[in-house]
Amino acid sequence: MKIAEEKLRQRHLKITPQRLEVLRTVLQMTDHPSADQIYRMVKIRHPTVSVATVYKTLETLVEVGELKVALVTQGRARYDPRVDRHHHFLCSQCGYVEDLEIKLDCLETCFPQALQDRLTIQRSEVIFHGLCPKCDGKH
Amino acid sequence: MKIAEEKLRQRHLKITPQRLEVLRTVLQMTDHPSADQIYRMVKIRHPTVSVATVYKTLETLVEVGELKVALVTQGRARYDPRVDRHHHFLCSQCGYVEDLEIKLDCLETCFPQALQDRLTIQRSEVIFHGLCPKCDGKH
DNA sequence: TCCTAAATAATAATAATTCCTATCTAGTAT
DNA sequence: ATACTAGATAGGAATTATTATTATTTAGGA
Question: Which nucleotide is nearest to A16 (CA to C1')?
Fold first, then answer.
């Protein structure tokens, strides 16, 4: 928490009760909460908070590097006519997607036996996030 | 296309112009289109088609194995207080997420140099999709 | 050709997120 | 301590993505 405050200060961002409360909440929740879940938790202690503030705050906390967005892809499902096993590159700016012809057989073997007893794996997918030539300055 | 028709027939699903048009469209589009992009394309040839039909049809085509949903995670962003490099398990039924302590250093080295010239990688993430103990029968 | 279950169109409803704007406040300057 | 101001917030409207509802239509078997 103290580190987070320092990060905000360094970027001349204000240390507001809302920001601290949102961060505290996410740190407490273990199951990778969605914005909505976070909003509902924050509202218990801070009933006047607005959804917009929670979204904005989460964005800010991701920017300063205190949180990460996990498991998301810009809001909408994308369909792929290739049903064989392959992986993807996703441009974090414009959403451009490219199939990657990378063999990653290690994935299956890397998945620990101990976990396989609890978790049944149906498939695995690797997403490389980055910038496509257009969005990257170097064209 | 013929194979897809066969798959539909096997499951006693009707071969409708809408289904064929949606599939043809996705096969033509190279950039992993979203449902909305597909809808707009389909509407050019088939102006009376409805969004709902496109969504339903995409679902059907995924079920019969003609399409895959790429890059998606049940609609909403999930936030993670762990900002270090790690991976995730995602239950495809209930959305339960678990951090995985798997070392996958191969990912970086697997990414071909040739592609690195075009694509700037910011991060990579592996998502293992499957069933959590609760959703899996074996409790 | 007829029949029926399945599929579609049209529209409403829901969910997730972003935008807008008047008001408020953290932190700096006084 | 006080005043000032850029930045932050609340509240609500707007937007986007997706799903549900239902009356009508149709593919494919009898």
Answer: C26
The residues facing B129 across adjacent strands are A123, B90
- The Cα-based distances of A131 to A79, B60, B100, B116 in angstroms read 21, 33, 26, 10
pLDDT tens-digit profile of B89-139? 888 788 788 888 887 777 777 777 888 889 998 888 888 888 888 888 755
pTM: 0.81
**Closest residue (Cα, C1') to C25:** A16
Number of CB atoms found within 10 A of residue B132's CB: 19
The single-letter DSSP state of residue B37 is H
Whether B55 CB is under 7 Å from strand D: yes
Q: DSSP of B42-59, one letter per residue?
A: HHHHSTT--HHHHHHHHH
Task: Give the pLDDT confidence of A52-103 residue by residue, as tens digits.
Answer: 999 999 999 999 989 988 765 556 777 887 878 888 888 877 778 888 888 7
Q: Do B35 and A79 touch (CB under 8 A)?
A: yes
Q: Which two tokens stand for residue B5?
A: 């028709």
Q: Report CA Rg, chain B.
A: 19
Is the dihedral angle over the CA atoms A74, A86, B110, A135 positive or is it negative?
negative
